Amino acid sequence: MVLVLNGVIQDERPINTHALFLEHPVYRETATQLLSIPTKTVGAPGLLYVCQREMAAVAPHDRNVNIIGSDDATTCIIVVVRHSGSGAIALAHLDGNGTDEAVSAMVARVQELAFGYPEGRIELQLIGGFSDPQGYAEDLFSNIMQSFHKHPLEIDLTQSCVGELNTIVRDDINWPIIYGVGVNIKTGEIFPATFPDKGPDLPLRMARHFTGSHQVLDIYDAAVGMLRIGPFNYDPLRGVDLWLAQSDEFILKHLSTSPDVEPPHFAMQVRATLRYIQDNQFPAVTVFRNNNPHYFRRDETTGCWTPVRY
Length: 310
Hints:
Layout: E1 3-5, E2 8-9, H1 17-23, H2 26-35, E3 40-41, E4 47-49, E5 54-58, E6 67-70, E7 77-83, E8 89-94, H3 99-113, E9 122-128, H4 136-150, E10 155-162, E11 167-170, E12 173-176, E13 181-184, E14 190-194, H5 202-207, E15 217-218, E16 220-221, E17 226-229, H6 240-244, H7 248-255, H8 266-279, H9 283-286, E18 294-298, E19 305-307
Parallel strand pairs: 1-10, 3-14, 4-6, 5-15, 9-10
Antiparallel strand pairs: 1-2, 5-8, 6-13, 7-8, 7-9, 11-12, 13-14, 16-17, 17-18, 18-19
Helix pairs in contact: 3-4, 7-8
C-alpha cells in the first residue's frame, strides 16, 4: 500500500493503463509534455547505455557519466527511479524477466547513492510500451506496478508515458511514439532519445535474450566509475546455423514481440548476436575467464568506454 499516484497513497495498484489515465488525468498531461520534446540523437561520449534486461544507477556528481539512457523499446518499458533530494538515478530496460528483483535493486542502489544527502522522495517514471496487439506491454505495466506496490517504501509515480499514450496509428497499425529516453544525470531532465552507439560488448549483452538468462544485470559500478559486464553464463542455443540462414523477414517475424514496428537495425543486431553465440557457446569458459567481469573505464580524451586490461 505504498504506491503514490498524484500525491495520494493507494490501497490498490492500477489494474491497467486505461484505469490509471482515467482516474488520474495528470499522467496524460505529463506524457503530452514528454512527447512534445524533440527526439535527441545522443553520441557515445559521456553516455551510459542500458540494454534490454539491464539496469544501472548513477549519482549526479559522477565524472564519467552525463547521460544515462536506453532505446529500442517496443513492448518493453524503460523504468527510471530517482531520489528527489540527492538526484541519484537508476534506469532499467524491462521486458518481464526478473521484474521483482530489478525493482528492489533499483530502489536499493538509489538509496545507497543518496546516503548522506537531504531527505527526498523516491520518484518513478515509466516510458515505452505501446498498445501492441498481443497486450505484452500492458501485462508488463501491470507486473511493474505490482512490484513497486509491494515495495515497503513510498514510491511516487510522476510519469507514465505508456500504452495508449505512447501509441500512434499508421496504416491501421499501432506504433510506439517514443522508443527510447535519455536522462541528464545533473538535472534529472528526461527526454526522448536515440543512441546509435550502444556501448561495448553489445552482442555478448544481447546474447542473454535468446539463451534462457532471465536476470536483470546491474552493469555499472558507481564506486569505481566503471562499466561492468558479467560474469554470466547462458545455455547453448541449438540451430544457430539454421537461424543465420534465414531471411531478415523470418528473423523479424519469429524473434520479435512486435515485428511490424521494430527499428530498421533489428535483424542486423540479431544476426550479430547469433554469430556471437555460435562462437561462444559457453561464455563462462571462453568469455569470462577465471570468472572475471569485463570492465570498461571512461577514456578522458574521447569520453568513450575503453577496456580495462589486467
